[in-house]
Amino acid sequence: MQALLSGKPVHVTDLKSRFGDLPGGPWPDAPSEAMVCPIVVADQTHSAVLIMGVNSCVKLDDQYRGFVDVFSVQLAAAFNTLESLEKVKQRARELSELDAAKTRFFSNVSHELRTPLTLILGPVEDCLSLNVPQQAQHYLSIINRNAQRLLKLVNLLLDFSSIEARKMKPHFQPVNLGRYTESLISMFESTFAKADLRLVIGLPPSPLYAYVDTGMWEKIVFNLLSNALKFTLKGEVCVTLLPDGSDSILFSVRDSGVGIAQEELPRVFERFHRVEGSAGRTYEGTGIGLALTQELVKLHGGALNIASELGVGTTLTVLLPCNMNHMSSWEVERLVNMGALSDAAEACEARINDEATMGMIKRSAHPSVAQLFVKEADQWVGSQGNNDEEEVSSG
User: Fold this and answer.
1) Would you say 216 and 364 are in contact if contact means Cβ atoms under 8 Å apart?
2) Rg for the chain (alpha carbons), in Å?
């Protein structure tokens, strides 16, 4: 206790009379003296003492005392390191639990919102198809437009929470990626025309085969196209799909939009991050789109990269593998069982010449997903892009 209170080593003598015979270890003579050194961790919430027996064959001089001091200091440092590591682990556990709780919350709330939104949209769309008065048509259009926008956000949150909870698993299939991507881009052609933007499409003349989850790929394409449309006020958007060597494909979306400052580039794929002050067709946004796109690309074993210059434009590039190395063992086994024994080209060969199959691939973009993206983009560029509050007040 004296050592703890004073914070200095205490020399204890006459150990034999106090404690009897003590073990001497490999030495024949038991120690008769000891040094009691305080060990205090950095936050001083835990304290201990180090008791070191003094070698009876060595004089307890300044050099010996210096050795005891150095040893006790090193031991205290080791305890402090362990204490710090334990705090870091505890903090990591708390953050992990908080993140899991947040993910569950997003998922639960999104599920609860999607059902009533779907029930709202059905009757509203039915009413819009009827011969209703013009003012009622106007208000129903506002309800429909904003419900569609909210449903798109809910779907984004559900996708993101599924990825964070590691519940979203890609279902790969061999696809002629050139033809499939062309069918997805074609859904945006009229929107780009309304926006008075040139949509330049560069696809290879020969087929490009890859293993993709078609539902995830459509979200990747739609997110990149809508992002380019949103921040490109004039000029063009160039979309290319090209082979990159023998085992990968490059999908690129380049625009002549407002661009992004260099200091913002490292954060563009962060969740909920938005570049403040960027001029665009709308100021709406959650900062989820590009973060979700990056996660979907990663699930394909690929990488999403960005290059941008303020006032010049932005290029987003997806590097996608063509082989099966990124797939789980059960996915490979499933593809082997369905006949994809070597590569995507061979697996697709029988399907590509089948017009019914290609028709299925072209239609595989789920109508609701495509509809939500295209309708939102139409809202940005069309007469419906006006602020809804202003529309209501002027109605």
Assistant:
1) no
2) 33
Pair of tokens at residue 215: 């539902």
Alpha-carbon distance of 54 to 50, in angstroms, equals: 12
Which pair of tokens denotes residue 372? Answer: 């939500």
Whole-number percent of the chain with pLDDT over 90? 21
Long-range contacts of 387-394 (CB under 8 A, 24+ apart): 388/142, 388/145, 388/146, 391/138, 391/142, 392/139, 392/142
* Contacts (Cβ under 8 Å, ≥6 apart) of 238: 200, 202, 252, 253, 254, 255
Residue by residue, DSSP assigns 11-63 as EE--HHHHH-S---TTSSSPPS-EEEEEEE-TTSSSEEEEEEEPPTTS---HH
Residue 245, both tokens: 């060597």
- Distance in angstroms (rounded) separating the CA atoms of residues 391 and 310: 33
DSSP secondary-structure letter at 303? E
**Nearest-angstrom CA–CA distance, 263 and 213:** 34
Q: Where are the alpha helices (H) located in 168-265, listed in sequence order?
A: 177-186, 189-194, 214-230
> What's the CA gap between 164 and 3, in Å, rounded?
51
In sequence order, which ranges of the chain are alpha helices (DSSP H)?
2-6, 15-19, 62-128, 134-164, 177-186, 189-194, 214-230, 289-299, 329-337, 344-352, 355-362, 367-381, 388-394
How do beta strands 198-202 and 236-243 pair? parallel
115-142: pLDDT as tens digits: 788 888 888 888 888 888 888 888 888 8
pTM beyond cutoff 0.70: no
Give the span between the Cα atoms of 5 and 105, in whole angstroms: 50
Q: What is the tens place of the pLDDT at every residue in 169-178? A: 888 888 899 9
Strand, helix or coil at 10?
strand
CA 193: distance to chain centroid?
Answer: 33
Distances (CA, A) of 25 to 22, 31, 55: 9, 10, 11
Q: What would the mean pLDDT of 253-265 be, rounded to a whole number?
A: 91
| CB 258, CB 317: distance < 8 Å | no
CA dihedral of residues 117, 119, 121, 124 (deg, nearest 10):
-140
112 contact partners, CB below 8 Å, separation of at least 6: none
Terminal Cα distance for the chain, rounded: 83
